User: What shape does this take?
Amino acid sequence: MLDKWTPLREFCRTHKFSEGTLRNYIFNAKKTGIVASGAAIRIMGRWYIDPDKFVEWSKACTDKWYERQPEPVAK
Assistant: This one.
């Protein structure tokens, strides 16, 4: 079961994702929902990322952003 979990630094290197940005999402976990979504977990002081759930969480964030966008103004 733990095979899918990737250490945070390795995940960032493998997927070309900024470690600082990801740590900021985790630091603000209650606001971002990254931990509640199951995309990030802490085991003995180290953070691990589930790549599949990270993609799901990213899609959900994109959907929320899209819903908040204003309707285009007709000319």
